Amino acid sequence: MRFDVITLFPASFDALSVSKIWQTAQATGKLELHTHQLRDFSTNKHNTVDEPPYGGGPGMLISVEPLVLALESIPRQKRSKVLMLSPQGKAFTQDRAQMWTQSLDQLILVCGRYEGVDERFIEGWVDECISIGDYVLSGGELAAMVVMETLSRLIPGVIGDPTSVTTDSIQSGGLKYPQYTRPSEYRGQKVPEVLLSGDHQKIEKWRQKQAHFRTLQNRPDLLKEPDILPPQLRGQEE
Q1: Which of 76, 85, 205, 235 has its CA 20 to 30 A from that of 133?
Q2: Of residues 51, 65, 149, 168, which has the active-site annotation?
């Protein structure tokens, strides 16, 4: 997967380099990251890329021309998609990330700033607007990193143990069960006895039941039938 990011703050994406998983994926050629400084495509002597909106209103908008010129400078893969990070976009989900990982070779992410971008760029050059949540950020950089981090974990070979991906919260269809490690007791808090039993069948049933209850409590919207506990999990020890 190749990621191209159009941004006013390319240095923001240096944060991804601290991840050992990301470093390894780049070193082995499983993913590429290219940032493109939007100001490099300004067409005025001051290197500005924003203008006040027609009709008045607060703030400034990013102009259409530097966005188009930046986009046209990027080498395009055969299976590519242009995304605009925006609170007005469709919700970004694990299912969407899975679909893109399987169907795309390149994702071009456009990071807005100020009050937004000229709508003509969205209508003429953007394939899809995406939102990572119902809140507003100052720009699209953090949202772009969220999208890239999510997709990178789904690229085959990026995560050493592929089962750790399939059992993740959300990816598995619900939230993950609680987990514990040594010591078995800490300041009066004990690890559930079933996890120390060595009975893998009981452990698996306990994990399934705990995952269901945790999802029911925190994210019932993820369950198709939130009030119904699967028959195979009824009566299992807590």
Answers
A1: 76
A2: 168
